[in-house]
């Protein structure tokens, strides 16, 4: 007995010892494996701006306490690695493949680059991979097929190229596949149809081409989001798509799809967002779209659709059908759309009739209303109430008449008002001067009267683009008016991070204003989006008289000045030479007299100069941009002489003081060059810049500016893609 009693503790001791040795041999080496793998990753991080890994990933604590690391509860192995949003720069080492219990790997919003090491294929427990918003390159590896447990694969916003591997079709547990914003090409693999658990498929903003495989959607019963916009897809929308009865978000925009919008769209009763804009779709809009009970956003713009706009459900928050061939009147069902919130865009169709009065009421919810380029007639509704939320209101190119409704003054958010090319008969809307209006375009109407009949009470201090041309304004050019243009005098107030005018929508997404039409340099320009840096004063083709006020020389951000075809007299103010970014100056067809101020030679960005048909005289200044202008800039001024005219100056005229050689040094030239290359400036270069920045598809509806780390949106609501958690 005694022995036994004596022995027991030692047996217990031995057993305990044995257990702990077993535990050590089971745990310690594996912990070290994970530790080594993570330290290898740390060693491959070349830049860690917040010093997170440097200070936290140390031997002092177990890897399970390291930042971004989570271990499984029983075996102390790393199961989750989340280094998202740490601004890390580096590569992914093969050692990571030793984290053999890893089920979630999230390194999105960093700057990892290079290609992915094949050893990672060993991570067969992975359920979630997020490499989004990095700089990975090369093809999407076909060995991703070995992640048989994978539910979420997020490779969006990288530099992946090549084709989408068919092997992804074997990831039968996959629910979310997001490959958007890459450089992928080739066809959408038919193998995707294997993914019967798929809920989200985002392949947008790539270069995928070919037709959508007709059987692709045969067995994707759970699909909720299908986003294939901004690719090179053509052919018809396959009918198999309408078997996906769970679809909520469908975007096939900015491709080259043809055929009609199928009636079967009515099968997709859960749709809340439908975007088919910028394709080649024809036929009528199926009226069944109007009975989709949850539809909130519908954008069919920029196709070749015909017929009438069907009655639509009152739940709509955004409607876009511009750039089609639609006819008829605006259906009165619009009046019931009290939840219209973001946009109502019917522009560039063949709609006719009067504007329903209720549109004024709706302005208490609609932020952007554009019914331009149609055949509407009658008056603009006058019932813009207090609380009007309109930000942009465009009715250009219609046959609207009467006056601008004074109730527009209730639209305190109004930034863009474009009524060009109508038959409006009114005086200058000085009463809008206290709004934050940035763009005011009244040209080609019958506006009349003075612009100097207000006493600084109304300031237009945010105005950057004002076009009063082709009206019947008269009187003097008001000094007060120009004095108050603070946005043009002091430069762009909100330089911000974008070159484009934008605002934050009701859904917290940034929207661009788009479509600005400006006549300048003799051309009708169409800007895909409004450049913030563009400033324009166009008072041409009116009956203004008197002198050009010197104060114009203080509008330091002015890019375009057109006072042509008026009855202005007196000299050209020498101070106009102080406008450092002026690119276009047109004072032609007035009664200006005196000499061309030599100070104008300082306008080193001046591309267009038109002083023709005045009474100017003396030597044409020489140097800088003045060496580039031709006879056309000066014709109809009998007293001018010197280059480029063939008429030589007499001795007396030659005594004209020459400008001090202005410093056209390397910097100035480079600056201009960089502007031409697309950092700013309007007009011709702005236009081509728009085309470049907005890449694929048809320029006028191009939607997205690609800025790394940021997504910007056009005026229309875009899909709110979650980062994919
Ligand atoms: C941390 O651990 C690794 C691997 O065990 C070892 O190589 C390294 O020397 C250790 N560093 C320190 C500072 O202890
Ligand atoms: C590392 O970070 C984690 C999580 O923030 C923290 O709990 C831990 O104390 C840190 N360890 C060290 C050594 O700083
Ligand atoms: C990233 O982190 C910064 C600051 O830590 C935070 O402001 C930002 O919202 C984060 N971004 C994302 C996408 O998580
Ligand atoms: C971890 O992975 C690397 C590279 O894949 C390999 O060479 C090494 O043997 C592994 N180390 C451990 C401790 O498993
Ligand atoms: C891990 O990958 C390597 C090389 O890719 C391979 O030789 C090895 O068999 C794999 N190990 C496991 C456990 O799958
Ligand atoms: C993307 O990859 C291509 C080559 O595949 C390269 O030319 C380009 O510079 C890369 N872009 C970025 C942003 O890394
Ligand atoms: C599709 O799934 C079937 C089994 O359901 C499988 O045999 C086939 O290989 C899969 N296709 C691809 C491309 O993975
Ligand atoms: C439309 O839905 C019905 C069931 O509601 C289904 O039987 C039919 O096949 C669907 N049509 C198409 C074209 O998918
Ligand atoms: C649209 O279709 C027409 C007629 O089929 C064709 O001529 C045109 O090239 C297509 N446009 C685009 C952008 O695909
Ligand atoms: C619309 O159709 C006409 C002919 O019917 C064609 O000329 C035009 O290119 C089409 N527009 C688009 C955008 O495809
Ligand atoms: C507006 O809605 C009301 C109630 O739902 C309905 O009675 C009326 O017919 C609708 N008006 C139009 C023009 O659709
Ligand atoms: C503009 O309206 C005024 C008064 O409302 C009228 O006298 C004038 O004839 C109209 N002018 C034009 C050009 O229609």
TrEMBL record:
It is a single-pass type I membrane protein. SUPFAM superfamilies: L domain-like (SSF52058). It comes from the Eukaryota. Residues 1-22 form the signal peptide. Pfam families: LRR_1, LRR_4, LRR_8, LRRNT_2. GO terms for cellular component: plasma membrane. Residues 33-71 form the Leucine-rich repeat-containing N-terminal plant-type domain. Keywords: Cell membrane, Glycoprotein, Leucine-rich repeat, Membrane, Receptor, Repeat, Signal, Transmembrane, Transmembrane helix. It is found in: Cell membrane. InterPro entries: Leu-rich_rpt (IPR001611), Leu-rich_rpt_4 (IPR025875), Leu-rich_rpt_typical-subtyp (IPR003591), LRR_dom_sf (IPR032675), LRR_N_plant-typ (IPR013210). Belongs to the RLP family. This is Receptor-like protein 12 isoform X1. It comes from Herrania umbratica.
């Amino acid at each position: 007995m005694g022995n036994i009693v004596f022995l027991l503790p030692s047996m217990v001791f031995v057993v305990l010892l044995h257990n702990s040795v077993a535990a050590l041999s089971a745990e310690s080496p594996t912990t070290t494996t994970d530790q080594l793998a993570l330290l290898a990753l740390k060693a491959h991080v070349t830049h860690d701006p917040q010093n997170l890994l440097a200070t936290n990933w140390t031997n002092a604590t177990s890897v399970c306490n390291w930042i971004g690391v989570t271990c499984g509860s029983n075996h102390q192995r790393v199961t989750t690695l989340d280094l998202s949003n740490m601004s890390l720069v580096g590569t992914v080492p093969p050692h990571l493949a030793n984290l053999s219990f890893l089920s979630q790997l999230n390194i999105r919003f960093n700057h990892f680059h290079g290609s992915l090491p094949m050893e990672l294929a060993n991570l067969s427990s992975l359920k979630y991979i997020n490499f989004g918003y990095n700089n990975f390159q090369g093809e999407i590896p076909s060995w991703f097929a070995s992640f048989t447990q994978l539910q979420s694969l997020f490779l969006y916003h990288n530099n992946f190229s090549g084709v989408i591997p068919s092997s992804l079709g074997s990831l039968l547990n996959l629910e979310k596949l997001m490959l958007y914003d890459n450089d992928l090409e080739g066809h959408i693999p038919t193998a995707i149809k294997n993914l019967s658990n798929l809920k989200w498929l985002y392949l947008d903003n790539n270069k995928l081409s070919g037709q959508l495989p007709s059987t692709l959607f045969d067995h994707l019963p759970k699909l909720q989001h299908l986003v294939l916009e901004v690719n090179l897809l053509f052919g018809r929308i396959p009918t198999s798509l309408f078997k996906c009865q769970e679809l909520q978000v469908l975007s096939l925009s900015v491709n080259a799809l043809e055929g009609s919008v199928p009636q079967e769209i009515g099968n997709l009763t859960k749709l809340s967002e439908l975007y088919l804009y910028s394709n080649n779709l024809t036929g009528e809009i199926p009226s069944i779209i109007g009975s989709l009970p949850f539809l909130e956003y519908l954008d069919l713009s920029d196709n070749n659709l015909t017929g009438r706009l069907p009655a639509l459900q009152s739940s709509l928050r955004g409607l876009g059908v511009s750039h089609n061939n639609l006819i008829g009147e605006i259906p009165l069902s619009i009046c019931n759309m009290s939840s219209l919130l973001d946009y109502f865009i019917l522009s560039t169709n063949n709609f006719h009739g009067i504007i329903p009065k209720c549109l004024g009421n709706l302005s208490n919810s609609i932020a952007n209303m554009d019914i331009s380029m149609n055949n509407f007639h009658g008056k603009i509704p006058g019932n813009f109430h207090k609380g009007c939320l309109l930000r942009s209101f465009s009715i250009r190119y219609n046959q609207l008449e009467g006056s601008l409704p004074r109730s527009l003054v209730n639209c305190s958010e109004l930034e863009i008002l474009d009524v060009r090319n109508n038959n409006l008969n009114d005086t200058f809307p000085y009463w809008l001067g206290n709004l934050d209006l940035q763009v005011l375009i009244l040209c080609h109407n019958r506006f009349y009267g003075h612009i100097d009949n207000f006493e600084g009470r109304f300031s237009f201090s945010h105005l950057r683009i004002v076009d009063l041309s082709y009206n019947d304004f008269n009187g003097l050019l008001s000094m007060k008016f120009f004095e108050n243009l603070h946005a043009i005098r002091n430069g762009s107030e909100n330089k911000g991070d974008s070159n484009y005018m934008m605002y934050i929508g009701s859904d917290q997404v940034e929207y661009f204003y788009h479509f600005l039409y400006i006549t300048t340099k003799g051309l009708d320009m169409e800007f895909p989006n409004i450049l913030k840096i563009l400033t324009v004063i166009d008072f041409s083709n009116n009956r203004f008289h008197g002198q050009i006020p010197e104060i114009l020389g203080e509008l330091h951000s002015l890019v375009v000045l057109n006072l042509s075809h008026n009855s202005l007299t007196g000299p050209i103010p020498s101070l106009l030479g102080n406008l450092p970014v002026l690119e276009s100056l047109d004072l032609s067809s007035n009664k200006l007299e005196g000499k061309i101020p030599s100070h104008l030679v300082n306008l080193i960005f001046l591309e267009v100069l038109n002083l023709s048909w005045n009474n100017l005289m003396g030597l044409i200044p020489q140097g800088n941009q003045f060496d580039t202008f031709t006879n056309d800039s000066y014709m109809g001024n009998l007293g001018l002489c010197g280059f480029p005219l063939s008429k030589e100056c007499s001795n007396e005229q030659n005594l004209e003081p020459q400008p001090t050689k202005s410093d056209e040094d390397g910097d100035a030239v480079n600056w201009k060059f960089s502007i031409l290359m697309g950092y700013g400036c309007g007009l011709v270069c702005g236009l081509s810049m728009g085309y470049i920045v907005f890449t694929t598809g048809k320029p006028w509806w191009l939607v997205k500016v690609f800025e790394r780390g940021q997504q910007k949106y056009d005026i229309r609501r875009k899909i709110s893609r979650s980062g994919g958690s």
